[in-house]
Amino acid sequence: LMGIVPNIELQRKLEHGQDSFNLTQRKQYTHNLYFKKHLGEVLNLGEKPMTEFDNVLFNCPPNTGKTTAVVKQLLVDREYVLIVADTLALAKQLSIIFELPVHSADNLLSPDTPKLITVYNWINYFHPNGIAKHTVVIDEAHSLITQQSFRPETLELVADSLALYPEVYCLTGTYIDCKFFDDYLIVKGTASDQLAQEVHFVKYKNPYEIVAELAYQFTQRNHQIMVYLPSKGKKLSWMKEALSQRGIYSVSELNASTINQDEDLFFETGSEVVEKQCFNSQVLLTTYTQGYNLTNENVVFIAFPGTDFVSIKQAIMRLRNGSSHNFILTNATDEVL
Length: 337
What we know:
- By secondary structure, this protein is α/β, with parallel strands linked by helices.
- 27% of the residues lie in helices and 20% in strands.
- The protein is built from 10 helices and 15 strands.
- The strands form 3 sheets. A 7-stranded parallel β-sheet has the order 1-7-2-6-5-3-4. A 6-stranded parallel β-sheet has the order 8-15-13-9-11-10, sandwiched between helices. Strands 12-14 form a two-stranded parallel sheet.
């Protein structure tokens, strides 16, 4: 399954291996790692087969510490490390965790900066004259081929630039079998302590009315509602309108913009927002793309991601250590589900 590629030319390259991708024959390499809870329990980048590949993709469940495990080892073993995030909010969060500077439009750093973090559209800045020294880590790597919100030229820029770097480590919880990752070593991590998620799939005619009805029913029983939207824009305003028609006006938002406006809220939200009950409203609307620890049984999680497999799986993987009140609104076929 390739996922959603928003650019025909990029899709042609992915399918046929033309131009800078230089993929003429599919080659698949896999390696399994088994651990109890965190990847760091068993990961050693200095061992085979990792040492035999310049490009490695880690496909591990969410909340298993893959970013921490990989980045911490590289920061010790490599002189130059470039961490690339799909959003500036994630880049800033990683900056706090690893105590590294963020290269952005508001904070331009030298291409020779040894260890740093940036976002997709700056990746070609660090190989002046086609010479790249950094080992690259792509966090949330599934975004390279599934994110419709990125400009097609940004995705192609990343794809072309990666070929210039000496080493590339991609990290994802939703690996997609496509040519983009040919010639990579695919490391599949399995956690024995991972909890199963209880999810209710709901088909609909009008998703906003369904969400509003679910929100109404559960708020009447003193539950808080968390609604995950795949994007902002009109969907956000439509959702608010539907909620207001059911008499729900206590609504707050969580996204990169609201996080960046409040530095104290930045590190408290994201993965811990629900666990720490950082919102005081009845309903929280969020487009924040990192996972959430829904450890409070009082919280109801609702998402309507679309109909393709990848988007649905991404919505489910927003859940970590989950509640039993989880609803995925989708008109996907039974085969996809």
